[in-house]
């Protein structure tokens, strides 16, 4: 009998294969969105065992969580009996250039991210070592991450090989070679760290100290013990203080709330996909009420009807699970292409697929409970009541569609407001170049020692390219973003100004109007000011000299504004410092140049001198943004993707619902058409319900969205305005109108004679 139900359910799904595919795809998208966001939140908040006993030590006075190396060693010596081992980690990640020397004496240069730790760090954070239990026992030893080993060594064993670092790691030490003693498995907490050195290698860096609360001792007793280890600093007596990691301070609570909000948003997409899935299955089941009634007359019991519906859910859920696996693979491939330094360890990849399977089981169990309600509703149905049935109002379907539409309005409105806020904060920027002229400027970052060593040769080869018409040397790494510094006004209040450094040829290169003297890049003690900042200086009665951080600079020119300087009111202007420390070079291409081809040629020139193991960063000017700006744009993109997904879910849901309605009411539509029903009449039959659902959804979602946006970005003026709500209302209404209009157009082309004949 089970095989019979499997065949029947599969045949019914194949009958509506288009709608089955839509429902399975919607659910698969929801699963993938939820898992990716869940993986991100796990990376931000990893829960360790015995969290209730884990502590962090910090200074008692200023609540500083970091200690000097001498302070850390003092605590370890005096409290080792009471606290046991302590974990030391220098709370920063720094990049340096290093050369890997393998067992075959081959040299490979790399840019590595590193941090300093002690030997107990790996045990404290449950980091698994891959080659025995060997830890760092001397300052000239290093432990590598599994991800870096794969990149640098491939499948070879790195134990015993040598890493040679640049002198910036140890400026006062002649020791620059480190021997690899072990490899640590990748972890979500320290995923970007390549090398773990001894904290003693970098004695000037601050150290975070973690440990465990001693047995039979509470936090108050431990802090009393810590008061016995005071020391003098800047004429003040300070002592360590312990804090439980499980205690949430204001910062950690905010982070937790943000993670919860992100998970809630991701769960909305999953819920929306599940709603669309269940709505299709249950509505299709109701459309077969005559068949169900006949089965009851032939002896089918409630158990048989339940199994019939369950196997339809099983087939659909399994198909959705397989689609989600494919989508996950595509998502992982896309992330490796578009996200820098992306990589997924095998253990984490296995955890992702395991979570995917768990979600499949949980959703299947939820569906098993939900489908009992339509079975219960039909268990007393007779053949007469099904042949002469009244039209139901589809309360369940309407409620679910209302929830879906509310979620979609929330995402669309949120994306709309975030983009408006982005434009308000960063959109109104100055540029004397057209968008095409900006695209014709290529920036080459001088980001490695190998590139600096061959810089003259690289520049000579690039200048020889016929399409290069001009060049600009910059001290700052970015042209599209600026850093800030404070200016003290005459009334002693402080304000921010935007800052950039480089060759004063900057103004001519970017067509920025400037009046004043053009000096060499190494002209120290001079400065250019923007027109906005010049007006502030006039108010402060400053003419020729301006002071920043106790140093005076001579004003030698006034310019309009920096390239892409924002006029959002957060700054009072900008300044330009002449500087000759070369970190980036901009090349202007001739009009009509194939920019992709030019970038490829410049990359080939750089690669002639720089090995493939070192990064070569070449970008068009519009793509040159700081990490902060990239992060904001990534959030914009993620929100946009979620909005598009939610729109598709709603559109497909409405399309599927009207299609199933058409199937269940095709006889009614045929009779209406025979009686002369117009498209307006049929539109009223189908559209009235969706209009009501939309109005109710908007009435609930819009106030919640407005409150959420005011809580998140309350400093943006656009959030308090009402016009974007009107635009949101008509945008979503137009989307629903197009979907229903298309289906009504299809309904009007139904042949009534064929419908009556089939009936």
From TrEMBL:
It is found in: Cell membrane. One of its GO terms (molecular function) is transmembrane transporter activity. It comes from the Bacteria. The keyword Transmembrane applies. The keyword Transmembrane applies. The chain crosses the membrane at residues 21-40, 256-278, 305-327, 347-373, 399-423, 638-658, 679-702, 722-742. Residues 20-224, 430-604 form the MacB-like periplasmic core domain. Residues 263-382, 640-752 form the ABC3 transporter permease C-terminal domain. Keywords: Cell membrane, Membrane, Transmembrane, Transmembrane helix. It is a multi-pass membrane protein. GO terms for cellular component: plasma membrane. This is FtsX-like permease family protein.
